[in-house]
Amino acid sequence: MKRHIDHDRFPEWRPFLDAVQQRRPDAGTWCEAWTVRDVVIHQAGNAEELARVLQAHLEGNPVGTRGFEEREGPLRALGDAELWDALHERMATLNDVATAADAVPADTDVAWTGRTMKVPWFAEHMREELVLHCWDITGDDPAAQARLAEPWMTTHSVTAVGRPLLAKGAKGLREGERIEGRLRVPGDDDVVVTADADHTYIGMAGPEGPATLETDAAARVLLLWGRRPGNPSRICSDAGPETLGQLRRLLSGY
């Protein structure tokens, strides 16, 4: 009997499971070079590491965050059935740790991959991973787009993950090169990004001046994570190919 995973705490868990179960493990996804099995490995590793780091903090014995290869390597050696069980087990453990963390003040900072995250962000980050990688599997179906468009997805991407999301693209900037961009969704604050060879910034600000690009809320989240909606006409811009190209290269994800 599988351990309990609270669907109120992780409402995106069931849609992710359904997406995975409806496809072969070796089926391709929108995440470049990853199959469905690779996505499951990544998710099991995410759940394990989020639980491990948060649990250590709750116990007063903080640990560093392991890299992807260290936490995913052992999972790659598992057969498909064993991997499926490992995903459930690690999600259940994260569920238990997140439940225990409800007793900790919400504004408590916990070290995570070279930055800090608030305690509630650990469960929220797993939720975001479930939404994003479910889209990797299903593409732009209406339910996936609706989950991506929820306001908390943009807030978490900018506030909790923004700095590492820009790090890869910023490494390719030349000395003296600077990128400034506004990603606009009508009726919402802009996502503002700036980057040069030494510094990056991402934040939310009221709409002001021309946008570098305008799109919908779901597509904007995809862009922040280095992805593209299936229909390119959802992204509109008159900034010109050079400026838009710079912004797209900066937003290349991990």
Automatic annotation (TrEMBL):
- Mycothiol-dependent maleylpyruvate isomerase metal-binding domain span: 12-137
One Pfam family matching this protein: MDMPI_N
Q: Which InterPro entries match?
A: DinB/YfiT-like, MDMPI_metal-binding
Transmembrane ranges?
none
Please state the span of the N-terminal signal peptide per the UniProt entry. none
The protein's name = Mycothiol-dependent maleylpyruvate isomerase metal-binding domain-containing protein
